[in-house]
Design goal:
The chain is an alpha/beta fold. The chain contains nine helices and nine strands. It folds into two domains: 15-68 and 159-232, Ribosomal protein L1/L10, rRNA-binding domain (Ribulose 1,5 Bisphosphate Carboxylase/Oxygenase, 2-Layer Sandwich), CATH 3.30.190.20; 74-157, Ribosomal protein L1/L10, domain II (Rossmann fold, 3-Layer(aba) Sandwich), CATH 3.40.50.790. The protein has helices at 5-13, 22-31, 81-89, 97-106, 120-123, 127-130, 148-157, 181-196, 229-232, and strands at 40-47, 59-63, 74-77, 93-95, 112-115, 159-163, 169-176, 208-215, 221-222.
């Protein structure tokens, strides 16, 4: 099988059997990023939970101190005075019936959707469109609310929404590869703190089993958890 020079360089540089201190891991990702676009730095967290039990699933959101380096498009499903709130906060798409019809015809063209509680009944007609893409508003994520102004502002700042998958692994973005090591670390720490607060009572012992950092086109680096001890313990 053909292996490109870029991938060969990554494989030669990184021993996947090793674990890496957090600062060194971020520096390695930055040095090995040679693609022509700005890669995203991703985190995968293996959690000590049983994802088959609904009361052990992790789902939440957090505003990272340095954002995620991406322009976030926000859709707001609302009527009346909430429309003005959405406009003032800078929402990209605003409406209810007309917006629903637009999505039915063209599909969603946004990253986050926010709705007032009274609007949710009408969103069932596009649940099959929004749901699979993770775009359905949810009270646990703060995207079903009457405080439309602050919800939009938070989304625009780079509020990260996270949830574990069926294997108990949580995936999220913590910024772009050109962020400084300090900024990426601070974003990472903020995310880990938010996840830690949601630890279910049923999870005994070590909650964070494994943490891996990677870039969009790069290899994954397993983090030495001792270098995150002050955050995850």
């Amino acid at each position: 099988m053909f292996i490109s020079k870029r991938i060969k360089k990554i494989k030669d540089k990184i021993n996947k059997k090793n674990t890496f201190k957090i600062d060194f891991a971020i520096q390695q990702l930055k040095e090995l990023s040679t693609v022509k676009f700005l890669e995203t730095v991703e985190i995968a967290i293996n959690l000590n939970i049983n994802p088959k039990k609904t009361d052990q699933n992790i789902r939440g959101s957090v505003i990272l101190p340095h954002g995620i380096g991406k322009l976030i498009k926000v859709a707001v499903f609302a009527q009346g005075s909430h429309v003005e709130q959405a406009k003032l906060a800078g929402a990209d798409f605003i409406g209810l019936n007309s917006l629903i019809q637009k999505i039915k015809k063209e599909g969603p063209n946004f990253d986050v959707s926010i709705a007032t509680p009274e609007s949710m009944g009408k969103l069932t007609s596009i649940g099959s469109i929004l749901g699979p893409k993770g775009l359905m508003p949810n009270p646990k994520l703060g995207t079903i609310t009457d405080d439309i102004f602050n919800a939009v502002k938070n989304a625009k700042k780079g509020q990260v929404r996270f949830r574990n998958d069926k294997n108990g692994i949580l995936h999220a973005s913590i910024g772009k590869i050109n962020f400084s090591i300090i900024n990426l670390k601070e974003n990472l720490f903020k995310l880990l703190e938010a996840v830690k607060k949601l630890k279910p009572r049923q999870s005994k012992g070590t909650f964070f089993k494994k943490i891996t950092l990677s870039s969009t086109m790069g290899g994954g680096l397993t983090i030495d958890l001792s270098s995150l001890k002050e955050i995850i313990d």
